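Shipment paperwork, digital attachment
Item: protein structure file
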Amino acid sequence: MANGLLDVGDGHRLYFETWGNPAGTPVVVLHGGPGSGCSPRLRELYDARRHHVVFFDQRGCGRSLPFGEIRANTTAHLIDDIERLRRHLGIARWWVSGGSWGATLALAYAAAHPQVVDGLVVRSAFLPGDGNVRWFFEGLAALRPEAWRALSAALGGAPDLLAELAFRLSGDDRELARDAALAWLTYEQAVNDPAAPLPSPTTEELDRLVGKYRLQAHYLKSGCFLDEAAFLDACAGLSGVPVWLIHGRDDVVCPPPNAERIHARIAGSRLVWIDGCVHDPFHPGMAAAWRVALGNEQG
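Attachment content:
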């Protein structure tokens, strides 16, 4: 395994690592969030014998430096970073994979650089623009009322929950920022699994969460710096490229119509539904479908 920090300009350095078979099919992994960073557990979804896997943490995320930095940090920057990383590693063409926000970024990157993309495998796709953001912070009040009320109460009943979170996470009051990060984490987990126990992160973990959610708020406030209609139009340009769209039927974070709309725009794309699956990359059905898609990377 090789790893390092790639200087991409603007004061940002990306942490990256390669794993698997250097002679195998190159596959780049785009993590979700925005802001989450690449989890080592994602290796479970790839085959070290067949794949030359490239993991990296997007600007401001994970082990990239400076952590939590939102300056010079937009989707256009990330698309350029992915291409810079490909060239740095000397990879001529690769498969692009990602989940949730990572699925959005994968599709946007492939649409911008189709000449170097052999195919895509994405799951639980997020749609940029205001729609999914409003759904997460407003629409879910009807579907997950207890979780939504708890978040609203933690933010003092603010009329715009995302704006209030962004304000608290970006301010100088460290305790206020930690409380906002904990409220966001609690809401996120309750939306996915209402029966889950309340999270209890350490102070150090909370400080990392502040950076993660500050970056996520920066992206979500701007609709992830992409227009939904323009994004779907760009996806249409991927017709003829092998594209696998895998989605849980019970996903409430990124609703199933997201996948249907993308599928409708990409001629020849394959849409795979996972019954009983929410927004979980490691659900047995989701993981199995993911491995099948990557095992058929010749399309």
